Amino acid sequence: MQAVTQSDSSNSATLNERDALWPNYSPPRDLVFTHGLGTELYTESGETYLDFLSGIAVTAFGHSHPHLIEALGAQSKKLWHVSNVFRIPEAEKLARRLAEASFADRLFFANSGTEAIEASIKAVRGYQAAVGRPERHRIIGMSDSFHGRTIAAVAASGNPSYVQNFAPTDHGFDHIAWGDMAALDAVITEKTAGVIVETVQGEGGIRPLTAEMLGHIRQVCDAQGLLLILDEVQCGVGRSGKLFAYETFGIEPDILASAKGLGGGFPIGACLVSEKVGQHMVVGTHGSTFGGNPLAAAVGNAVLDLVFEPGLLENVQKQAGTLRAGLEELVSEFPAVLSKVSGLGLMIGARCEIPNVELMTALRQNRLLVGRAGDNMIRLLPPLNVSDEHVAQALDILRQEVRRLHQS
To answer: Are 262 and 268 a contacting pair, CB within 8 Å?
Structure first.
């Protein structure tokens, strides 16, 4: 077979004029980072940016953390991959540590949050079939959710902007308005298998469920024989000020999806389940070629080392309090620009009264990186070990830009 060169291809001119990457976001064309250290990112020209986005809650301990570098480097010199047809001691260790620190008894490791969600969905339906209720396959989700980009994950979210034409049927999901507990009660049928919800909603607007909501969902699931999936892909692994955000609310799920911060920047996802569920996920029910490989598991263990260090979770709570207080002051002083602050721990949203992209761009031009979310919010996700100095610096930049936009 003759290789096709660029000059042979009919689209060669087009390829010369644009990137070969499939676009998924719209990154600023003139901004490329070459390296980072802690909460700071650096460009080739030497500009310094304050990173309060953390790769969308992924680089939980900032950039180039020495403990994570050492863990990855040491493992890379020993063994990268054997697949989990063989035992992987680092993955066994990571699973044991997560189970001991949470509700879970068993874990499945994947490569991403959306894969952890897929495993969670299979676990719900597999459990119901295993206990003699195969007709129970439908799962209830909430509006404005985001559970990932795979077909089942977008169907679980039910968000039209993500579903588009990719999921032509409902794929076994029902949806209620976020937080509407009466609607939850009404939509349950003999075919309902479980409920899936973000403990703190991310893309749809930075809003935590309340203790009352989660308590009601847990009570309904127990009464009806349903399973509760908590999506903590973004809000878990210390970001809430607890290892997992559900600990704040006094309930436990049956299944929990984790990812993002669990690898500190290295891809890993995890589906945590109780023994009731896990005993039915036997050989052949699920698997992953790359999931929980030695590299990912070594870094995951190093991340847990840092999360469990004395004072780390207290730092999350302290810095979250400072950030929220500063943002609340801006809401009070400049209501034409910011109108509300919400979130949990270092997952904070500020609702804008101007287009959120306008404020996000202004902050970036002043070397502060934040994200955006639904409900016209900007999203702040600094590293869990962010310093007093960097929090103060971020609030100074926010004040400067919010004041300027208020006056313009």
So the answer is: yes
